[in-house]
Design brief:
Largest sheet of chain A: 5 strands, antiparallel
Number of helices of chain A: 4
Order of helices and strands of chain A: EEHEEHHHEEEE
Shape of chain A: globular
Strand order of the largest sheet of chain A: 1-8-3-5-6
Distance between the termini of chain A: 5 Å
Oligomer: homotrimer
Low-confidence stretches of chain A: none
Chain lengths: ~160, ~160, ~160
């Protein structure tokens, strides 16, 4: 039995950003030497998600693939972008005080939309590994989504492989 | 290879309830002796979900953390609370008859909203275990959510650990 | 340690279709000989999802269980069925050109709703296996959902089991 872990970084922008991390995940699988098992691609960040989707050949002016931009439109309807305190209940006064103790400006707490969007889309995807390959089909790509719009930042993508 | 299982109970209320079960899951990991692998935190109940989110330092009068209350607000928009039969197609007459055969009052079937909300948020989360620790980052907590509003009840939270 | 894989086919219709695949997944578990571990039921198709829900004893005229039809109603509100090009940004001109190169009519690309719905509901479910049984409780059934409404087609359901 092999348990293999790899972390790598992506850099997000101040809009919802979608990173195609398929190549890095496949490299991690090759490094692991695992032929059959399960690959969990995971975000430890609570305003990010991992999703599997088709690659879209067209992008908008911001460089976002159009299918992902359609996803943002849908999410905007369900969970509108947080533009000021009071729009959502979170972050409350105690939360802001706690963050201030960590040296964070209050505005960084106005990412409630990102937290809620990431809950809806989930923290990870689990992908079968068969004969050394990820079962993504012809059209499946792995995206790391960062929904936080209040700041650009480095994020960790985690790959955990269990198999043999 | 180790496969370790632990079940424990939480008690829900007649509003959407969110139980922080991070401590119990970490205890299960310690008991398992697993250092590297995958931890699945799972709900066998089809009106409950498992989610990973940031802890919120503020609560409302019902004791619900504000970020979770924001989540309830969002879900209420998408999947309104079921207040009477006929609001949703489910439960139909055959379903009610089946439940009656189990001694259940018809009103217990008016939890369609809970079933639908739990489908959107998912049945489980899979968390990487590295060097004996759950990869939850600094801010990740594990919540067991019970969306059933028609009765308070005991629920099982299941932890399944695979690793070595 | 055992890693066991099984694929099987289901045939979808030109409406959102929900296949109860619980029996096939249980058969796969029996074939695997695994007593304790994790079972991932997975869709490699990016317009399909795997969900766990209660069985509903009533169906509509199309044969869809009523709880699943309620789910479709909810999804229709969030992600309306794509009825013509331009309703969503995807598929853009490059994507249509790419598909045409594969011999696909442009209308097959009008399944943006299916892609987005499948992202919201997720690609897979992970189910604990304890003493040779899937932990689905009394009421849990496994459904493979195909949201693509532009054509009826054969789909692969994948079962990946890791355990001992």
């Amino acid at each position: 039995m092999t348990v293999f872990n790899k972390k790598f970084k992506v850099k997000s922008d101040r809009i919802p950003t979608f990173h195609d991390v398929s190549k890095q995940v496949k490299e991690a699988l090759n490094e692991s030497g695992v032929n059959n098992g399960i690959c969990v691609v995971y975000s430890q960040h609570t305003s990010c998600s991992v999703i599997i989707q088709e690659y879209c050949h067209d992008r908008n002016y911001w460089g976002t693939e159009l299918l992902m931009q359609d996803l943002v439109t849908i999410l905007e309807k369900i969970v509108p972008t947080c533009r000021t305190e009071g729009q959502y209940l979170h972050p409350g006064p105690e939360h802001i005080k706690f963050a201030a103790g960590n040296g964070e400006p209050a505005s960084w707490g106005l990412n409630t939309d990102a937290h809620l969007r990431s809950v809806i889309l989930g923290r990870s995807e689990s992908i079968p590994i068969i004969e050394g390959k990820l079962e993504l089909g012809e059209f499946g790509f792995i995206y790391f989504a960062d929904f936080d719009q209040v700041r650009d930042r480095e994020r960790f993508v985690m790959v955990q492989i269990v198999g043999e």
